[in-house]
Design goal:
3 domains, ABC transporter transmembrane region fold, binds magnesium ion, Rossmann fold, binds adenosine-5'-triphosphate, alpha/beta, 6-stranded mixed beta sheet, 10% strand, 586 residues
């Protein structure tokens, strides 16, 4: 990103808060001016009180000093408060927009971007930008104003001596500029490593049981320690430059002061200057040192902030691959049929996951999808809510191409129980009512009963108000599934997708849940994916998917008679069991 464009975008972020910033700048200019005033005070103090012995001035000067400090403090408060609060407002808005933006991204985005990376954008990069804007950018302004004011005093007092300072200042700035370039480069690798670290922490904590079960503690510790080492080495480079900067500038400052003492001392002794001028000059010069030094440090901060801003803007610039078309219509309530017309899909350009799928599911139908693992069943149903975009062909809902309707109106009509149960670190109640948190207690209890979750929920320490831990960690796999079934039931959408929804239940609960689902399916269009064929025998139609193609299609009886793949799957499941498979409907 060009520097100019970068600054423009930062300006746009800051713009809504410009009133606060203007007040801050006014306060800051006042602070700078008063600081210069303080330096100048040394001159009358020395010359008129000590040398000319003006009693009257001695009575006024202390008051003047108190007043200056007081006023300066007041302006400092204004400057600091307005500045910091404006900065915090900027990051608050930025965080919100990053969060919203992330959630407009389609599923495929999250396959490409790690959680740690996104967390580091929202937490640390945003903070870096804030620090760069409020401390550095504005601080820089303050220090520059202060330097100019103090230099003004210096020139006013003795322009010849001031020239010596002027020759030395640029020398001090050269290394600062050089350091800055390096820092910007390091900052990038620094943040990348921080993202890797947060991702690693996130993953291993979420997967701590697997880490334990496979005895990978040492391996994970090593992986983490390598990352930490890498971060250390990057930071160590920062520290080396950073630590060098200070003594270097201090030394240059010392040189300037030595030169002034030598030259100024001679001036005073030969009567060409007064001790007051000399000390005031020295005081102003020492005061200049502080802001000059600050600028050195700020440069690093600004560079880090700019690098962070580039990352954040790049994230905000990623266009969602799936978005509502201009003029997308609101899908009317589903009534007739879901149609797949020659649909192909691939996750990557290389090999297609689904090939030429032609399929019509009429309203009210229960369509079962079976087939070997990895065949494309989940992928197929994920295309209906448009989690992914078809690579070729069309999907129609009641003759509306799903890419031409709004995503919200499309997804409103679909309730889905995912193959991987996803629950949130919240109460049972909120997990069931997710999607519509205003639903009544009664409705929640009803769906919980239908999903056979009511009994176990009652036994939880706080019933429906029990917090279930991250990802529902405090529940069993089957319990989690039942909660997500209840969630789908509550949504009460015309299209129901069940992807291995009952796979973690024991036979008895499964039969019970199947009954509940059967009831539910009555007025709905259902796509049900199952490995256990026992659960889908009564489906209106069964689709066998293998290697991304529909290879067989028909009722259970038909397929058992004619279908090769289906019969094989069936025989494999029931060869060794004498028990008759259970039924889908009562
Ligand atoms: N996000 C992804 N990126 C790339 N390839 C993927 C992705 N998700 C799935 N695949 C691949 O697509 C193919 C079909 O996966 P899919 O999940 O649809 O299978 P499935 O029929 O549901 O299998 P299972 O019965 O095991 O759930 C698999 O080969 C899988 O490796
Ligand atoms: Mg699947």
């Amino acid at each position: 990103m060009e520097n100019k464009e970068l600054l423009k975008r930062i300006y746009l972020l800051v713009k809504p808060h410009r009133r606060r910033l203007v007040i801050a700048v006014v306060g800051m200019v006042m602070v700078a001016g008063l600081t210069a005033g303080q330096a100048y005070m040394v001159k009358p103090l020395m010359d008129r009180i000590f040398f000319d012995q003006e009693q009257a001035l001695l009575n006024i000067l202390p008051w003047a000093i108190v007043l200056i400090f007081l006023v300066k403090g007041l302006f400092y408060y204004l400057y600091r408060y307005m500045l910091e609060s404006a900065g915090q407002r900027v990051i608050r808005e930025l965080r919100k927009s990053i969060f919203q933006h992330i959630h407009t991204q389609p599923t495929s985005f999250f396959h490409k971007t790690t959680t740690g990376e996104l967390i580091s954008r929202i937490i640390s990069d945003v903070t870096l930008i804030h620090v760069a804007i409020s401390r550095a950018l504005i601080g820089l302004l303050k220090d520059l104003v202060q330097i100019i004011a103090l230099l003004g005093v210096v020139f006013y007092l003795d322009w010849q001596m001031a020239l010596i300072v002027f020759i030395l200042l640029p020398v001090a700035f050269t290394p600062i500029v050089n350091f800055a370039k390096k820092f910007r480069k390091y900052s990038v690798s620094n943040q990348q490593t921080v993202a890797l670290i947060s991702n690693n922490v996130h993953e291993t904590i979420a997967g701590q049981r697997v880490v334990k079960a496979f005895g990978m503690e040492r391996y994970e510790a090593k992986r983490f320690s390598d990352l930490s080492d890498r971060l250390y080495h990057i930071i160590a480079r920062d520290i080396r430059l950073n630590s060098l900067q200070h003594p270097l500038m201090e030394f240059l400052g010392g040189l300037a002061i030595a030169a002034i003492i030598w030259y100024g001392g001679h001036q005073v002794l030969s009567g060409q200057s007064t001790p007051g001028t000399f000390f005031a000059f020295l005081a102003a010069l020492m005061m200049v040192y502080e802001p000059v030094k600050n600028i050195g440090g700020m440069n690093i901060t600004i560079q880090q902030g700019l690098a962070a801003a580039i990352r954040v803007f790049n994230l905000l610039d990623t266009k969602p691959e799936i978005k509502d078309q201009p003029g997308a219509i609101i899908l009317p309530p589903f009534r007739k049929a879901i149609k797949f017309r020659d649909v192909s899909f691939s996750y990557n350009q290389a090999n297609p996951t689904l090939r030429n799928i032609n399929l019509t599911v009429v309203a009210g139908e229960v369509l079962a999808i079976v087939g070997p693992s990895g065949g494309g069943k989940t992928t197929l149903v994920n295309l209906i809510p448009r989690f992914f975009e078809v690579s070729a062909g069309k999907i129609l809902l009641d003759d509306h191409d799903i890419s031409e309707v709004t995503q919200t109106s499309l997804r409103d009509q679909i309730a889905i129980v995912e193959q991987q149960t996803i629950l949130f670190n919240d109460t049972v109640k909120n997990n069931i009512a997710y999607g519509d948190l205003d639903r009544s207690e009664d409705e929640i209890v009803t769906v919980a009963k239908a999903a056979h979750a009511y009994d176990f929920i009652q036994e939880l320490p706080e019933g429906f108000d029990t917090e279930i831990g991250e990802g529902g960690a405090r529940l069993s796999g089957g319990q989690r599934q039942r909660i997500s079934i209840a969630r789908a039931l509550l949504k009460n959408a015309p299209i129901l997708i069940l992807d291995e929804a009952t796979s973690s239940l024991d036979t008895e609960s499964e039969q019970e849940v199947q009954k509940a689902l059967a009831n539910l399916m009555k007025n709905r269009t259902t796509l049900v994916i199952a490995h256990r064929l026992s659960t889908i025998q009564n489906a209106d139609r069964i689709l066998v998917i293998q290697e991304g193609r529909i290879v067989e299609e028909g009722t259970h009886a038909n397929l058992l008679a004619d279908g090769n793949v289906y019969r094989e799957l069936y025989n494999m499941q029931f060869k060794n069991s004498n028990s008759e498979p259970s039924n889908l409907t009562p």
